[in-house]
Write a structure and sequence with these properties.
The protein is an alpha/beta fold and 241 residues long. It is built from 5 helices and 7 strands, in the order ααβββαββαββα. The chain has a 5-stranded mixed sheet with strand order 5-4-3-6-7. Strands 1-2 form a two-stranded antiparallel sheet. The protein is rod-shaped.
């Protein structure tokens, strides 16, 4: 029987649910073409999703239990990500130009032979500036780590005439040196440490360093540790020529 709104079936069949509202069937079926196309798209989308879930084994098992392949798929993706990270970390990379600075080794004492004596101004006991180049030819003895009076006196006794013996202290204090009957000893100080920096020889306690310079201001020999005179006796003779 039709209901109060006239929605029921006249032949006694049950009518449509009332929450569907009023149903109007058009006389021309083409008027429903847009709705039909939308329904077909939704059905195809649902069918494609179900097909891929079936291929991947993601469809629910009978009884509503979750599929077995889903946890396996999650573990496989996590494993692939971990392996990709390890591969990226351990893959050898070519060194870039700016990663490591180029290290240029400092010249040693033997490398300085044949080089010109730097233009350094030292100070004497009266705090007056003295050009080191004005004293050549000379044997310059660095006594900032050791006064070594015996070694200084030995050099003064061996130098030929005309060759100066110069002792160089660190700081501004100039200590007096023992008088030598053979050659006068000129004590000076190097407040800036320029000579030691030029030689690139660290001061070692208990040892003195000697530099032999000829008349042209060229280093003939550098003796890092002044000990036996036999190691520089021949070069001393050359300084006087």
């Amino acid at each position: 029987m039709p209901d109060a709104d006239g929605q029921g079936s006249a032949d006694g069949l049950p009518g449509l649910p009332p929450e569907w509202g009023r149903i109007v069937v058009p006389d021309d079926p083409s008027a429903l073409a847009e709705e039909a196309a939308q329904v077909r798209r939704e059905l195809r989308r649902s069918a494609n999703g179900a097909r891929w879930r079936r291929r991947l084994g993601l469809l629910p098992r009978p009884g509503g239990q979750p599929p077995l392949r889903l946890p396996l798929l999650v573990m496989l993706v996590a494993l692939l990500i971990t392996l990709a990270g390890l591969f990226a970390v351990t893959w050898p990379r070519p060194p870039r130009g700016g990663d490591r600075p180029t290290v240029v080794p400092y010249p040693t004492a033997t490398d300085l032979s044949g080089r010109a004596l730097p233009a350094l101004d030292l100070v004497d006991a009266g705090n007056s500036a003295v050009s080191l180049r004005s004293l050549v030819p000379a044997v310059i003895i660095l006594v900032d780590a050791c006064p070594c009076p015996e070694r200084v006196a030995e050099v003064a006794a061996l130098v030929p005439p005309g060759v100066a013996v110069v002792t160089v202290e660190g700081g501004r204090t100039v200590r007096s040196t023992p008088a030598s009957p053979a050659a006068a000893i000129r004590p000076l100080a190097d407040p800036a440490g320029g000579l030691r920096a030029f030689l690139r020889l660290p001061a070692r306690p208990g040892t003195a360093t000697a530099v032999l310079v000829d008349r042209a201001g060229v280093l003939v020999q550098v003796v890092p540790e002044l000990r036996s005179a036999e190691g520089y006796r021949a070069d001393l003779t050359r300084l006087g020529s």
